[in-house]
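Predict structure. Chain length: 181.
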Amino acid sequence: MASNFERDLAKARKAEHIVCDVLNSATIDYSFEEVGDQKDYFYKGDIKAMDFNNNVCFVEVKDDSRIAETGNVLCEYKVYSYGKSKWLKGNMQSDYDYYAVVAQQINTIYIIDFKVLKSRYKSGKHYAKDHYGDDGRLAQKTVGTLCSLNQIKHWGGLLYTLKYREDNGSYYIVWYIIKLW
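Prediction complete.
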């Protein structure tokens, strides 16, 4: 039986694969490579994007099963690991260029300018939640804020909304909305 951690990791890797496939199908100006499982890229991002001039930027990917229903993006400030008895950095303490939030149940990816989100997320609604392991014991506590997609759009941080489809295990862009303001 898979643990919560293993299930969450599998969902995260699938979301990274979806975003990488969709971005590669959307443009020829950049190449996208999944790097989330490489230690050198921890806190840099899950996908490395490179243009023809070898300029590099990074995309952090978050699978969010609730965004379609709530319209909120979770901005983690810190995470307490009960197993390690210490606080760990949340995603808002990283330096990604872009943040891709995947709503698999509606085949949608929201691409957010991470620098805009990082500069404004503290104005969101406070969030704290305990997470339990398969053994029923406390595993971790997440502390951060919830920012609505409308709020992020108002700040100028919601850059793209991408709809995608799956075909034999590969993912392709169907349509997109770009930032027009």
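Summary: The two ends are 48 Å apart (CA to CA).
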